[in-house]
Amino acid sequence: MKVNVSSEGSDRVKADLLAFAVYEGSGISKDLQKIDSSLGSAISKAIKLKRFSGKCGETYMLQTYGKLSVECILLVGMGKKEEFELDHVRKYAGASICSAKVMKAKSLAISMPSCKEKVSDVSHALAEGCVLADYVFDDYVTKTETENNLAVSILSGDKKSTDYGVLVAESINYTRKLQNFPPAVVTPAYLASEAQRMGKELKLKVSVLGNKELEKKGMNGILAVGKGSVNEPRLIQLDYNGGKTGEKPVILVGKGITFDTGGISIKPSRAMDEMKFDMSGAAAVLGIMRIAAKSGLKKNLIGLMACAENRPSSSSYLPGDIIKTYNKKTIEVLNTDAEGRVVLSDALGYAAEMKSEIIVDIATLTGSVVVALGSTYSGMVGNSQRHMDLMRKAGEKTGDKVWQMPLHEDYREMVKSKIADVKNIGSGKGEAGSLSAAAFLEAFVGDSKWIHLDIAGTAWTTEPKPYFGLGGTGAGVHVISEFLRTL
Ligand code: BES
Ligand code: ZN
Ligand code: ZN
């Protein structure tokens, strides 16, 4: 798919399909009135007869029968004008793409919705909505038709913002593809070779630690989780230097469990296939680095991906094991399914040793966060309120939303162990599981500033959403890349 801007007016543009945004109960825009009169008031009639009301996401298509230079007109509901948010613009673009695909259109023109936001922000969001809606995970489906290459033009759009929106969305789709591929393909070694490939393309420094190097460095958390599988663990590092030399980097740390069976504390089989998405944090780190490098972000960044496969076998780590991690703190293992925090302990300890502006970790860490926030918000915990406020704002702007949760002394208490420094599950009956997990991670960040994003509920979807098909959503890529721009 190609997304361009066009300065052509909506009454003159040539396309198979021309889309208009219509607010609920607000009448139709001047541009649409012109079209309406060319079509013998077909649009106002449809609204009067309540065939179309303008509810968010609702669509209505009309043939022009040669009366206009476009074959069909699409109306897309935007909801009530008072309830407008930028995400409705992405939904408008997503709905337009879906309709264009259904009618097998080769060209789609999208008219600017009238709203209070800047043209640049709207163009950016339209481009994102288009590119995100266009992605489907069909690499393993035998194709019967040749692909229809849709050309999209955003009418009166801002070129620079559109191009940046396309870059962001293509990078999110890149993360989604890594998430969606089967776990037999996406192993820790695969993620390492993908990082190396990307590093070469974008001139990033990439280093990969395998079993031998991890042993040398005392990264026994990653080793412990990975040792039950023939697919050996890796710690992958990518460096991007877009900032001044000597400027402290932002360090991104991603959980990269390429499959989480639970290990010896094995999971129930229901929906276990979804645990291929347990590497979503690591995949997000790659997507963010791609945006930074391709857009020339003026920041120094380090990406760390803690990758392992969590399997039961005769060589797996066990409940009762005590692990000495990279920063010498010890972990009492009580449940091998709480493996994310174990691999992150080494990566965070390693990150904390470097002087950074802030460490941001991103992980499909707990089932509890899904109970608390569903698939609407990722959970956020941290020790720097200023940075968390910026992250929350970036979430609202991008639609990749985060909700702050508390980090209280009581949660730290819950992960204290009697026989080691911390234990990998909280005391009690699993209450506040996301927060005892966050308190566990906090024990490894030293005095660094730090934000933790738990994306367990947002990283993938089993029901298609307005501009996301089934599977990986690339959660975290959008919000963190926007956060980095506001630092
Ligand atoms: N990968 C899971 C968390 C998860 C669960 C992500 C469901 C997405 C959907 C993680 O490794 C895990 O198993 N966490 C356990 C921790 C528990 C054993 C303390 C959980 O949340 O149940
Ligand atoms: Zn687990
Ligand atoms: Zn996991």
Automatic annotation (TrEMBL):
List membrane-spanning regions: none
Q: Where in the cell is it found?
A: Cytoplasm
A molecular function (GO) held by this record is: manganese ion binding
Keyword line? Aminopeptidase, Cytoplasm, Hydrolase, Manganese, Metal-binding, Protease
- NCBIfam families for the chain: PRK00913.1-2, PRK00913.1-4, PRK00913.3-5
Q: What is its EC number?
A: 3.4.11.1, 3.4.11.10
Q: Which reaction does it catalyse?
A: Release of an N-terminal amino acid, Xaa-|-Yaa-, in which Xaa is preferably Leu, but may be other amino acids including Pro although not Arg or Lys, and Yaa may be Pro. Amino acid amides and methyl esters are also readily hydrolyzed, but rates on arylamides are exceedingly low; Release of an N-terminal amino acid, preferentially leucine, but not glutamic or aspartic acids
What is the first-listed, main subcellular location in coarse terms?
cytoplasm
Q: What function does the entry list?
A: Presumably involved in the processing and regular turnover of intracellular proteins. Catalyzes the removal of unsubstituted N-terminal amino acids from various peptides.
The entry's cellular-component GO terms read:
cytoplasm
Location of the active site: 267, 341
Q: How is the co-factor bound, per the entry? A: Binds 2 manganese ions per subunit.
Name the coenzymes or cofactors required.
Answer: Mn(2+)
Q: Which EC class does it fall in? A: hydrolase
Looking at the record's lineage, which domain of life comes first? Archaea
**Name of the protein in its database record:** Probable cytosol aminopeptidase
The residues listed in the UniProt record as binding Mn(2+) 1, with positions renumbered to this chain, are 260, 337, 339
Which gene carries the instructions for this protein? pepA
Q: Which family does it belong to?
A: Belongs to the peptidase M17 family.
**Which residues does the record give as Mn(2+) 2 binding sites?**
255, 260, 278, 339
